[in-house]
Design brief:
5-stranded antiparallel β-sheet; alpha+beta; 27 helices; Beta-Lactamase; about 25% strand
């Protein structure tokens, strides 16, 4: 049996902490190791109970263990913590037994410091927990292949990836390899073998494995070898399987998206860019080469300002600095750049900031659009807009419904209407009713069909005055060729017409000098014939038949004289253009008679009119002037030519396709052709393009104004006609004038009637007014011979008094136009105030004022020229009374 002394020796020799305690758990003897562990001296420990060294949470457990020791005789081993002298805790492992020494019961216990072990266990536990968390977080499946036994551990997650439960798969390598896609299986086996054999340094590959439901799962497999510590030979292969199906699909989608974005970037007309926080290009699309001329690698690393002129770089830099400072997006920043070839182009730049996760500005990305053409177009549009706004022609834009949407200042100047007075209204506000409704219908039909209308209108200003307007109305179409608006230009032709009239008068004066000699010659001949006839009549007064024949001859001579005066006055008159249906042949014959007066008898001159009944819508005076001008040119051309000849003629002309293409402005296919031909000197080729230019002449100084053919060209154009010239130097010239045939064949009966018997009246009362007493008496006798009752007045005042007294009985007023004090027109204005339906027949020897019948009185008033025949007067009176 051991004694206490023996026990003390054993305790002292032990390398581990040992203590001998009484049943009261107070140490009786402790060794040095025990005191080292706790930091107390032996003396201090001998006075302390074990529970005093124990943390509170272990006390109850320790008391219970000591109580068990009384019956079980052994204690532990168990782990606990002791409180060291410095107050810190230390992990220890305790084991004890109950012993009897010298007849007394003791507890002999060993105390081993396990702090390092606990730390290692804790580290291991933490590592395992972290690994478990990592595996769980990574969502990877774990496999561990024992290369000796061929057993494989497949983690629950590994099986879950393939759709299997924990107990559904055999733990063998073949189990796993059988799930691999047939196309991938050989590669997987080969890679594994290479890694195990050391041929490759790593194992990391992607392949497909079959899911329990039959579809294929994309797997990323990684593994590492575990070698034997002694032999260094591989004994295990441990790895993970990661389900990358969604990742692969995402990568595919991302690839497709990138491809789409790349294709989009390459196909865009704009170029895409990115700059870093320093404003340096880090990316640009290939489109930059077609915009700036630089390749992508020539752009990256540079700043946008490197491609700008200094002033522009400074301007844009200031703007961009403010944008960057605010870290805000920007849109439509215009900036001018230099291309690689040194040309300036305008870019429209937009961009958005790139913000990092911490709110830091990483840079900007955006697009640049080349708007150089747009800027040029805008500048061109600005110029056009300025031209439209400040040009001399009035411009009006209307919607398809006719409402006015825009007018320029010139329009206001011409019409008197301010924008707020006319916008939203219809252009009919300008109608003067001077045109027939069919004229406006033709205009509307033309523009409604998508064509351009050109013509002249008599429009009405805001103040009610009329003015001639040359207009062009064009449709405005959208990209689908649908008409959205109409634009019309208005030119006030008042001054132009006055200048034209002055030019025409100048031309007439050129011709009149030539005409005077011929007219005087003819007048003298006719006066001599009249004087001789009167002498013969006086000698044979008893022979009534002879006298009647003489008087008929005198009547013919006076008619010829009157026609000559009418032609000359018509040719020389100033006045407004009067377009009306005319029989061309009759007009040409009259004009030719007048032209004959300036053509010497030594020149053969022929008027060759056709048999067709050609009717044109024309102004007789202007057509007559055209013939006079061409005849004057022909007369000049044949001077000095042997057997000179001038031919004037008319013919019907049906236009062919070539003619219509050559003269696209001509809308009619049927024309009356007027030709003036001479066998004179001809026109030089280099003069052919200039002959219709104003003031161009081949005549000597003082021989001509150079306005003749220019006037002809202007008149022909005004009649919607065409002028053609054929000439060869030394062989003569022919001028062809094509005037569209009139669609209106209605002619006044009084103009076409071949009747030569005066129409008698029915005792109606006519108020006859003329300040020439002899003509008044003669005219009254003629009217009375036609069965009319005649009231005579020698002036306007007398006529008004007679009308006041005889108003109810007077059926018609026949008045001279030019009279002292009250003219014929002034007289009728006052009479119409009293009796608005009274017909009026006006007569004038020469009306320098160019009076015209008001439009509202056109059906009840007519103007005739003196001298007039009883036949003509009877027809007009009958027309008015009927």
């Amino acid at each position: 049996m051991l004694s206490k002394y023996d026990c003390f020796k054993l305790i002292e020799m032990s390398p581990i902490g040992m203590a001998l305690c009484g049943t009261d758990r107070v140490p009786v003897y402790i060794n040095n190791e025990f005191t080292r562990i706790l930091g107390y001296s032996p003396e201090e420990l001998k006075n302390m109970c074990c529970t005093e060294l124990t943390p509170a949470e272990y006390v109850s457990q320790e008391i219970q263990l000591f109580e068990q020791l009384a019956t079980d005789k052994t204690l532990g081993p168990y782990d606990k913590e002791y409180i060291k002298k410095d107050g810190s805790r230390i992990n220890v492992r305790i084991k004890g037994i109950s012993v009897e020494l010298d007849g007394e019961q003791y507890i002999w216990s060993s105390v081993v410091e396990i702090e390092d072990l606990k730390n290692a266990e804790k580290a291991t536990r933490i590592s395992e927990e972290r690994f478990a968390l990592a595996m769980e977080g990574a969502n990877d499946g774990l496999w561990d292949w024992d290369l000796k036994t061929d057993e494989v551990y497949y983690s629950p997650r590994w099986k879950e990836i393939l759709g299997y439960q924990e107990d559904e798969l055999e733990p063998t390598f073949s189990t796993g390899i059988d799930f691999v896609h047939p196309d991938d299986r050989a590669t997987v086996i080969d890679k594994v073998e290479q890694y195990i054999s050391g041929t490759t340094d790593s194992y990391n590959m992607e392949f497909r494995m079959r899911h329990k439901l039959g579809h294929w799962v994309d797997i990323l497999s990684k593994a590492t070898l575990v070698a034997d510590k002694v032999s260094n030979k591989p004994i295990r292969l441990v790895g993970t399987h990661q389900d990358i199906t969604e990742k692969k699909q995402a990568e595919k989608c991302l690839y497709e998206a990138n491809e789409r974005h790349r294709d989009l970037a390459e196909s865009m007309s704009d170029w895409i860019w990115e700059v870093n926080a320093d404003g340096v290009y880090t990316y640009c699309s290939a489109k930059v080469s077609s915009i700036l001329g630089y390749q992508q690698d020539e752009i990256i690393g540079k700043r946008p300002f490197d491609f700008m002129l200094p002033d522009e770089a400074g301007r844009v830099g200031t703007i961009f600095s403010e944008i960057v400072q605010a870290q805000r997006p920007f849109r439509n920043l215009e900036n001018w750049n230099l291309t690689k070839e040194g040309q300036l182009i305008c870019l429209l730049t937009s961009g958005v900031p790139i913000i990092g996760g911490d709110g830091e500005l990483l840079g900007y990305r955006g697009v640049d659009a080349d708007i150089t053409d747009q800027k040029k177009a805008e500048e061109e549009l600005r110029k056009q807009s300025q031209a439209i706004k400040y040009g001399g022609e009035g411009v009006m834009i209307t919607g398809t419904d006719g409402s006015i949407e825009y007018i320029n200042p010139a329009f206001t100047e011409i019409t008197g209407y301010l924008p707020d007075e006319i916008l939203g209204k219809n252009p009919r506000i300008l109608k003067s009713s001077a045109q027939d409704p069919s004229y406006y219908k033709a205009l509307w039909d033309t523009i409604s069909s998508g064509s351009v209308w050109r013509g002249t209108l008599i429009d009405k200003r805001k103040d009610g005055s009329f003015y001639p307007a040359m207009m062009t109305v064009s449709p405005i179409k959208d990209l689908n060729e649908k008409t959205t608006h109409y634009v019309s230009t208005h030119r006030d032709m008042t001054e132009h017409q006055q200048l034209e009239e002055q030019a025409r008068q100048s031309q007439k004066l050129e011709s009149i000098g030539t005409l005077v000699g011929g007219i005087a010659h003819d007048f003298n001949n006719m006066l001599a014939a009249i004087e001789g006839s009167l002498y013969l009549a006086r000698t044979q007064l008893d022979d009534h038949v002879y006298v009647e024949n003489i008087l008929n001859d005198i009547n013919k001579l006076t008619s010829r004289s009157a026609d000559m005066v009418k032609q000359l006055l018509t040719y020389a008159r100033k006045g407004k253009v009067s377009m009306r249906p005319l029989i061309l042949n009759a007009l040409m014959e009259d004009a030719f008679k007048l032209a004959n007066k300036m053509i010497p008898e030594n020149i053969e001159h022929i008027c060759d009119t056709c048999n067709e009944h050609l009717i044109i819508n024309a102004d007789a005076t202007q057509i007559q002037q055209v013939l006079m001008n061409l005849a004057a040119n022909a007369l000049h051309a044949v001077a000095g030519v042997e057997n000179p000849k001038i031919t004037c003629g008319t013919s019907y002309f049906k236009a062919n396709e070539n003619f219509m293409q050559k003269h696209s402005h001509s809308q009619s296919g049927e024309f009356a052709r007027i030709s003036v031909r001479d066998n004179g000197c001809g026109i030089k080729k280099d003069h052919m393009d200039k002959i219709t230019e104003p003031f161009f002449t081949t005549k000597g100084v003082g021989e001509g104004t150079g306005l003749g053919l220019s006037m002809v060209y202007g008149v022909v154009k005004m009649h919607n006609g065409t002028l053609e010239v054929e000439s060869e130097k030394g062989k003569g010239t022919v001028f062809h004038i094509y005037i569209p045939l009139s669609k209106s064949l209605e002619m006044r009966e009084s103009e076409t009637s071949e009747a030569n018997v005066p129409i008698a009246g029915n005792k109606e009362t006519i108020l006859l007014v003329d300040d020439e007493n002899d003509l008044l008496i003669t005219s009254a006798q003629v009217l009375e011979s036609l069965n009319y009752r005649v009231l005579q007045a020698t002036n306007g005042e007398e006529a008004l008094q007679i009308f006041e007294d005889e108003q109810d009985s007077i059926s018609l007023v026949f008045t001279d136009i030019i009279m002292p004090k009250i003219s014929g027109f002034d007289l009728m204005e006052q009479i119409w105030l009293k009796s608005k339906n009274t017909p009026a027949l006006f007569a004038s020897g020469y009306d320098a004022m160019g009076h015209e019948i008001p439009k509202e009185k056109e059906q009840q008033a007519i103007i005739i020229s003196k001298p007039y025949s009883p036949l003509e007067v009877s027809f007009h009176i009958r027309d008015l009374l009927n």
